[in-house]
Amino acid sequence: MRICILAGGPTESLPDLSTYNDNDIESLWVGVDRGVHTLLENGITPHAAFGDFDSVSEVELQTIREAMEEVHLYPSEKDETDLEIAFDWAARQAADELYIFGATGGRLDHLLGNIQLLLREEIVKKHARTEICIVDKTNILTAKLPGVYKLEVIPDKKYVSFVPVTGEVKGITLHGFKYPLENCQIKIGSTLCISNELISESGTFSFTDGILLVIRSSD
């Protein structure tokens, strides 16, 4: 099962949402705050909605209530963001794939907070086999634990960056890349693994310790 969450980030940063409605995979859509309204505008009725809905008008909120049954309304003053509440709900559904849209662009504090959702210990360990990605028009971002991974070329996102988010990441090995590495160690703050590229249809990366953010990007 695939769960797709649309948060309330700028719509100009969104990819083509229709490409994530695959007839071969059950797709469950979740809207967060204004993201619910955006989904409805795109002809997608979400399974559930979460938020304080302070970014929609009363008329838009009424439209949301009339369009769907499961609307979770929260106070604006709370300890979690609307996206975190929706993300935690989605993580409990045991999906094979979890995509988050509308989580980039706009406020930097929101962006950094949203990235940190992927880095919570219970997420990276318990859901290590679930593909969890933050996606926008020019980037696909995911967090990885130690292991061996295969990457295939994405034509419109030729750059591949590996960013350490723990104190150090050990044993990084890159095969099939323009700038290969063999058993390398990088520390947080290093830019050594920024803007690499695959030189064939696929390549592999592996590491033995730490956590990496893997970012596929276009200009």
TrEMBL record:
Pfam families named among the record's database cross-references: TPK_B1_binding (PF04265), TPK_catalytic (PF04263)
CDD domains, sorted: TPK
* Identification of the protein by name: Thiamine diphosphokinase
User: Tell me, which GO biological process terms does this entry list?
Assistant: thiamine diphosphate biosynthetic process; thiamine metabolic process
Keywords assigned: ATP-binding, Kinase, Nucleotide-binding, Transferase
The EC number(s) this enzyme carries: 2.7.6.2
Write down the superkingdom of origin.
Bacteria
Tell me which species this is from: Peribacillus cavernae
Keyword Nucleotide-binding assigned: yes
Q: Which InterPro entries match?
A: Thi_PPkinase, Thiamin_PyroPKinase_B1-bd, TPK, TPK_B1-bd_sf, TPK_catalytic, TPK_catalytic_sf
Occurrences of domain Thiamin pyrophosphokinase thiamin-binding (ranges): 147-213
Molecular function terms, GO-annotated: ATP binding; kinase activity; thiamine binding; thiamine diphosphokinase activity
